[in-house]
Specification:
alpha+beta, Lipocalin, 4 domains, eight-stranded antiparallel beta barrel, 9 helices, 29 strands
């Protein structure tokens, strides 16, 4: 039996028709034509459909995943607007990471560009499903991408443990760290958290409690991460990172945590060989013009030299703060210069860096300093320079007065606020100094 006949037979008898009359109607030629037309496919330009019904527009919330090193990372994704003018957003906690453009191709292919990351999503849309890839541009192979319409999370059953607070994770990193901070906020069965390292944080990990474990994840166009956090009987947290690495977290108030090494102090991590020597740099800007520390614009000024890169998510966290400082204190004598370390293809055509600057309203000079693995070689005055971002704060006399490794983003809550306060206080103190010493 055809689908059309099945559909018709499943309906209740129409009011006023008996069985014999119905059969008579079906035998008429016009009725036969109608049945054939019902079974025919629709026009080729119709919207994607499910169960024979027109699909809803793609706008709305989606439960999405990317696959990274064979690990599926879940995250929230949103599409806004009406075709063909669409936009998409990732989320870093309550912060939206918006696409710079969006379009529909060939009826059901969605393309969203995130120029600030040099990346894009390409996905086939079939009603309540999206499937495609997250193209990372010059950063490496694409991530497989899938999504379905967002559904309410099932309610957690049983007693929900309380894990809110600050925890310490003993570890060994390639930057010489011996411990990380694990910062957790909780409302019922919903948790947001971040791991804070010397170079910055993981972004906001979000999730809930199910089957005895908090499942937390993050992807905002960068920093894909999955944590499975299980409270243990001894008061610790057992953490499985990306299905591979096992970590243990202890509350900072726990005696065992006090016996562990402290997390690295970002203000002590990087230094310079000779604090009495002027800090030097000389690199081309995006127009090929050489910019050096000896240029008149920097003389007698307080200068922040930001080691950065448009590929670096913690640099994206830092950029709004630097822009804010520049607007507030430039007239008082503050200058900022960014030394961008980018991949070779981006150095030839720094389109991602230009988009990064546009995204955050960067108006201070940005220089093309080299590739990411050349940071230490290009700045030989620095000692232990292995975190991006890192900011050197230079006094009016041209000497380095402070160095701040990394940047604690909004996900780090109080540590974010404190980091901004420390840098701002340092800038205000140095601006208040008066010196006749030339560089």
């Amino acid at each position: 039996m055809s689908n059309a006949a099945c559909s018709f037979a499943a309906r209740p008898w129409h009011h006023g028709f008996g069985k014999g009359r119905l059969m008579t109607q079906l035998m008429r030629p016009s009725a036969l034509v109608l049945l054939v037309l019902v079974g025919m496919p629709g026009p080729s330009n119709a919207q994607p459909a499910t169960s024979g019904r027109p699909a809803p527009p793609p706008a709305g919330r989606w439960d999405a995943t990317v696959v990274v090193n064979e690990v599926e990372i879940p995250f929230q994704f949103e599409i806004t607007g009406r075709a063909p003018d669409l936009r998409a957003s990732f989320f870093d906690g309550d912060l939206r990471v918006r696409s710079t453009s969006g379009r529909v191709e060939n009826g059901n292919n969605l393309v969203f560009r995130f120029d600030q990351y040099g990346s894009r999503i390409e996905a086939a849309w079939s009603g309540n499903e999206l499937q495609g890839k997250y193209d990372r541009g010059t950063r490496g192979a694409p991530y497989p991408f899938r999504a379905h319409r967002a559904r309410p999370a099932p309610a957690s059953k049983g007693k929900i443990p309380t894990i809110a607070g600050e925890w310490k994770i003993a570890t060994t990193s390639d930057k010489g760290e011996k411990a990380f901070r694990f910062l957790v906020r909780q409302s019922g069965d919903q948790v947001s958290a971040a791991i804070l390292r010397v170079d910055g944080d993981t972004g906001t990990l979000s999730g809930g409690f199910r089957d005895g474990t908090f499942v937390l994840s993050h992807f905002s166009g960068a920093r894909p991460l999955l944590l499975e956090v299980t409270p243990a009987a001894d008061g610790s947290l057992e953490i499985l990172q990306n299905k591979q690495t096992r970590l243990v977290a202890l509350r900072v108030e726990d005696r065992r945590a006090r016996e562990l090494p402290e997390p690295t102090d970002p203000q002590q991590h990087t230094t310079v060989k000779d604090r009495a020597a002027p800090f030097t740099f000389s690199f081309p800007d995006l127009n090929g013009q050489l910019v050096s520390n000896t240029d008149p614009r920097f003389q007698g000024k307080v200068v922040m030299v930001s080691i950065t890169g448009s590929w670096c998510p913690n640099c994206h966290d830092e950029a709004p703060f630097l822009t804010e400082l520049y607007k507030k204190y430039r007239q008082s004598g503050l200058e900022i210069v960014g030394l961008a370390f980018e991949e070779a293809d981006q150095l030839k055509n720094p389109e991602r860096l230009r988009a990064f600057m546009k995204q955050f309203g960067v108006t201070y000079p940005m220089l093309l300093a080299g590739e990411p693995d050349q940071v230490a070689d290009k700045l030989p005055q620095a000692v232990n320079l292995n975190a991006v971002p890192t900011t050197f704060i230079i006094g009016r006399d041209g000497r380095v007065r402070a160095v701040h490794a990394g940047f604690a983003g909004r996900a780090s809550a109080d540590f974010h606020t404190r980091a901004k306060q420390q840098v701002t206080a340092e800038i205000e103190r140095l601006l208040a100094e008066r010196t006749s010493t030339s560089r």
